[in-house]
């Protein structure tokens, strides 16, 4: 899947988050995703909320899995471990770099580094496991 | 802090989530929190989204920490590990039961079980670490 | 499987850890396992090492899965998240209480609380996912 | 600290694991560590056990923290999340590449990729948090 294919798929399947994410770059086993920061993503002081960072990590891991197996709305997150390491910069988009570390028959495993745009040190890291529906393995 | 104290604190400090959560019960090292499901929390099919479950786990762990140390807007999540185990029932509130397992000088550790209201098996489990600001330890 | 069945299975399949663990109690979706502390499990000062606590959590989650699906040497750990919360007491056995939270076709999810024998507060908590081989699902 | 300094420190402070690990390479915020596979690290079939992989991840995260703060036997692991992705090759050493993602006053966060020597795909990934004793922050 290309970045355009993935964007179209995301808009169609997940209306609730339409406009939240931009797929910046797709390569083998890697995707870069932007969280377009809006008021709803913020906490007092303008920092990005934990759930917004989780949502970015989650969608990024989903997309890097889809990039390899094709559009599959039914892949589901089974586990996420996330470390919040630094306070995001106020009013700045977040950029997630995700790598697919394993694509098995039943599970994918990805890791994600999240940056405030323009800052050198990551604000969060996450690893996620997705369960892949059996039909896709046939 | 009582449930009413915590509700007032949450509404004041985190306007973005006002009305999302109801604190149902507070006891020593335990809090029960309801996620009042709204359209914004859902995915296609009416199931509750992963980020909404993360948000519930996160606020629950925050509240059980506050219940013991007093109002402290500056406690921050440093780690969350969450397992998504079953699909939440469509259009039903989620209930989180959180236990404080450790309250140290620098860190608190909690675990959370999340249920679809009225169903016996948990839909998710999470463990969270909060960093407690040094000022509160003095 | 009973505690005796599980002990026999463990001794036969995992010779390297023979004598390390005692299965204390088995109930529906719950098992209690003792780590019989020996010199090899310790760190300077007599405290139990992190890898020894991990090993206890891992074997406990394995056993609570086996208790429900029957002897299955091929179930494998796919994820573990562990929080080390307190220093174990010196020279004292560890006791793990494990609960099976989910037993699906492909995955089991368990959580574990580990105690130094005789102390009220847990020294560690862990959650583990095991992948169950397809053959067992037929 | 250099690789030689770290090796000497490890041998002195942790006699129980003497000879298990070789520090292969040290750079800014990065360390490479080898697990010298011995009989005690194996499971039936010659694969490396989960606790041995955990031990390698744990010591690697410890060493990359020490490399930056200096010898400090009292830094302790507070959290580890580990994904086991592939079966290690039989009878082959494991190599861990660890990166320090954050070094704060109270906590360090590292991530680790573990490889069977000579194989291109990682067998495990882990992220670890270490608590740094207050004295070192003064």
From TrEMBL, chains A, B, C, D:
InterPro entries per UniProt: HotDog_dom_sf, PAAI_dom, Thioestr_dom
Keywords: Hydrolase
Gene3D superfamilies to which the protein is assigned, alphabetical: Hotdog Thioesterase
Coiled-coil ranges (or none): none
CDD domains the UniProt entry points to: PaaI_thioesterase (cd03443)
Keyword Hydrolase belongs to the record: yes
Keyword Metal-binding carried by entry: no
Database matches in Pfam families: 4HBT (PF03061)
Domain Thioesterase: 45-118
Domain of life: Bacteria
NCBIfam families to which the protein is assigned, alphabetical: unchar_dom_1
Protein name according to UniProt: Thioesterase domain-containing protein
Provenance organism: Roseobacter fucihabitans
């Amino acid at each position: 899947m290309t970045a355009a294919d993935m964007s179209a798929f995301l808009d169609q399947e997940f209306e609730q988050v339409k406009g939240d994410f931009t797929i910046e770059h797709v390569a083998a086993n890697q995707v870069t995703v932007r969280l377009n920061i809006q008021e709803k993503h913020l906490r007092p002081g303008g920092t990005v909320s934990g759930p917004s960072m989780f949502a970015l990590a989650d969608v990024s891991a989903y997309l890097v899995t889809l990039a390899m197996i094709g559009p599959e709305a039914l892949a589901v997150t089974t586990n996420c471990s996330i470390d919040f390491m630094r306070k995001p910069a106020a009013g700045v988009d977040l950029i997630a770099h995700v790598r697919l570390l394993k694509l098995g028959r039943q599970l994918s495993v990805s890791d994600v580094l999240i940056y405030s745009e323009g800052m050198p040190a990551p604000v969060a890291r996450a690893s996620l496991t997705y369960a892949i529906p059996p039909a896709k393995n046939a």
